[in-house]
Write a structure and sequence with these properties.
By secondary structure, the chain is α/β, with parallel strands linked by helices. It has 12 helices and 12 strands. Strands 8-7-6-9-10-11-12 form a 7-stranded parallel sheet, sandwiched between helices. Strands 2-1-3-4-5 form a 5-stranded parallel sheet. Strand 9, helix 9 and strand 10 form a beta-alpha-beta unit. Helix 10 runs parallel beside helix 11. It is globular, with a radius of gyration of 21 Å. It binds nicotinamide-adenine-dinucleotide.
Length: about 325
């Protein structure tokens, strides 16, 4: 089976080589991002696999449908960039990737600690031999209440990681699960907003979760709340985040993902002007830590992403795929 691989990253190549030896596939690897202009490049293939840079709109899906694409896999866990309903309508089956939640969960706890200990400022100072302490006094986890929104694979693993720190742990999910209930207290969303010193987001991006952190929900939160987002940027309204940082309502932000990061994250923009001015503005605050959507980025995750990207298509073609959407 012939598969067109969009957005191939160099670090994926060795895993693609391995998978070619294991599965009856021919892979056409390119660094192109799916778009109306590049969609027809997949002509002659049965499947396409992508990462998350392109918006997979109905226009692109129409082209893929016309050239005979039957299967689409996204080599990420989140698939909010794909118009899945339209894909189903035109008969293109879609699956997403899967990898252990530990890498993102570790990263989340790291951002929490960096925010709590003002580590961005400490790093800045170290660069210029300023080893002063002034303004760097932090807080210890043990004294805090930490709230996790979304207790699926990653949210639960973050909670599990946090159990060793001695903080009070609150959780909210539309569908509470038993294993989380054993280590955290499920509360309603308003209670979580009102009681937590640190709030971390771990839901997918849906219409129902879009801008869940906004002016109104921020108003319910504690003064100086720390917000961590290692899920999807659009869960939080940039304007509300900026207002919250400017007013001091938000004590610190740990953002691995930012609204409107597409075309910026994972790309070297050193000689460019950033197209997302909210992102550029937010990133310069002393208490905003912004990373390049890299919480997932471990050896284990990249291997799994490539595996599911190709195996998912083969499985769909053979009948059933465990990660089909
Ligand atoms: P998951 O499907 O295991 O868990 C998601 C949880 O969110 C589920 O328990 C679900 O019930 C809950 N949920 C859905 N809608 C909700 C709502 N309105 N309110 C409260 N809870 C709600 O997913 P996961 O593997 O834990 O991943 C979560 C998200 O993290 C992914 O969708 C992806 O967007 C993001 N992610 C980011 C990175 C990164 O590198 N930064 C890496 C992997 C995943």
């Amino acid at each position: 089976m012939k598969i067109y691989v969009y957005e191939t990253r160099e670090d994926e190549s060795a895993y693609f080589e391995q998978i070619k030896k294991r599965l009856p596939v021919e892979l056409i690897q390119s660094q192109e991002v799916p778009s109306i202009e590049t969609a027809a490049y997949a002509k002659g293939c049965m499947g396409v696999t992508t990462l998350g840079q392109g918006q997979i709109t109905s226009d692109i899906l129409d082209i893929w449908h016309q050239i005979g694409i039957k299967y689409l896999s996204v080599r990420t866990i989140g698939y909010n960039n794909i118009d899945v309903n339209y894909a189903k309508k035109v008969g293109i089956r879609v699956c997403h990737s899967n990898y252990p939640p530990d890498g993102v969960a570790d990263f989340t706890v790291m951002l929490m600690l960096m925010c709590l200990r003002n580590y961005k400022q400490a790093l800045w100072r170290g660069q210029v031999n300023d080893f002063s302490l002034n303004g760097l006094k932090g807080r210890q986890m043990k004294d805090l209440t930490i709230g996790i929104i979304g207790t699926g694979k990653i949210g639960y693993t973050v909670l599990k990681n946090l159990t060793g720190f001695g903080a009070k742990l609150l959780a909210y999910d539309l569908y509470p699960n038993e294993h989380t209930a054993q280590i955290a207290e499920y509360v309603d969303i308003d209670t979580l907003y009102q009681r937590c010193d640190v709030i971390s987001l771990h839901t997918p991006l849906f219409d129902s979760t879009y801008h869940m952190i906004n002016k109104k929900t921020l108003h319910q939160m504690k003064e100086g709340v720390i917000i961590i987002n290692c899920a999807r940027g659009e869960l939080a309204d940039n304007e509300a985040l900026i207002a919250g940082i400017e007013s001091g309502k938000i004590g610190a932000l740990g953002l691995d993902v930012v609204e409107g990061e597409e075309g910026i994250s994972h790309i070297d923009h050193r000689t460019n002007i950033l197209s997302n001015n909210q992102m550029a503005y937010l990133r310069q605050f002393k208490n905003v830590i912004m990373t390049q959507h890299m919480a997932f980025y471990t050896d284990k995750a990249v291997e799994s992403m490539v595996h599911y990207g190709v195996q998912g298509i083969v499985d769909m073609a053979n009948g059933a795929c465990e990660t089909e959407i």
